[in-house]
């Protein structure tokens, strides 16, 4: 189960969502650590491995599900101890099944529980023994540790589900007892009531669009455009691209020039930055100038305004930005982990602001005003 444990890793400029859970790694002694599971099927268990390789790690005991009495264990920089009468809830097969379910959940696909409930619905619609057998097989495919949670009912757990798929005279998995006709009828009534409740509950307000981009991410690599081009491509989205912008009656050669000029309240330094031979030279001049008070807190707002000016004052460049559709824009900035993504190390603020300006341009075209 994913819960609130959400993480990600970067792969070719794309965030691959993931989650994590506790596990023991056996490398001589036993080490309590985190097992990271990602939507693309890779698992980090002291090394990034495929699902098939992860299964091998389980079979070999590298990812440990058996914890011998008296074995030494530790949590890095936390504690060390020896196992005394340990009990493990997992086997290699069970942990692998849970990881497979987690990958399905990360991808928005039906996991084993959802597949089981779909089979149960099919059985209730046509109560043949063949369809009951399919539903029972789907129930047994749910990892044992997750079966109690299948119905989301913490009072009755999965008892109605067990009784339904076993049928009168069949046996429950746990506790091990025969299903009576009364128990079966109660289970049928439970699912009929559950279906009514699901049908009658207020419909959720539909989402106004996808939570994740439809278009693949676009990586805006570090570059130093020195002159305009008739067909600049995505290089035009760089803040140093020479697209002059007017800000309060002053014309700056590019967004980068304007940003560095506005970062100082020294008039002479600002004039020198504006007249610099290149955006890089402008940055170097700014580095030696006095910063405005509160610049660190104001800089994101300033950059937003400058990017807005660039794309409203240069319609052809706005078309290039709009052509990125709804893609995540991953912006490299050699000199700043604040503005750039830089292989996942940075905050990618320019990339995020470009997405904001793009949305504003779409709103303008749609006639939406706020």
Please characterize this protein's 3D structure.
The chain has helices at 51-60, 92-106, 112-125, 129-140, 144-147, 159-166, 181-200, 255-262, 267-274, 279-287, 295-313, 315-322, 349-365, and strands at 7-11, 14-27, 29-38, 43-44, 48-49, 63-64, 72-75, 79-82, 218-220, 245-247, 250-252, 329-331. With 370 residues, it is of the alpha+beta class. Helix 8 packs antiparallel against helix 11 (295-313). It contains 13 helices and twelve strands.
The amount of beta strand, in percent, is 5-15%
How many separate helices?
Answer: 13
How many strand units? 12
Largest sheet, if any? 8 strands, mixed
Shape descriptor: elongated
Question: Would you identify the regions where 5 or more consecutive residues have pLDDT less than 50?
Answer: none
Cα Rg = 29 Å
N- and C-termini, Cα separation: 40 Å
- The multimeric state of the shown protein is single chain
Question: What's the short version?
Answer:
This protein is α+β, with helices and mostly antiparallel strands and 370 residues long. It has 13 helices and twelve strands.
Layout of strands and helices, then pairs:
Blueprint: E1 7-11, E2 14-27, E3 29-38, E4 43-44, E5 48-49, H1 51-60, E6 63-64, E7 72-75, E8 79-82, H2 92-106, H3 112-125, H4 129-140, H5 144-147, H6 159-166, H7 181-200, E9 218-220, E10 245-247, E11 250-252, H8 255-262, H9 267-274, H10 279-287, H11 295-313, H12 315-322, E12 329-331, H13 349-365
Parallel strand pairs: 3-7, 9-12
Antiparallel strand pairs: 1-2, 2-3, 2-6, 3-4, 4-5, 7-8, 10-11
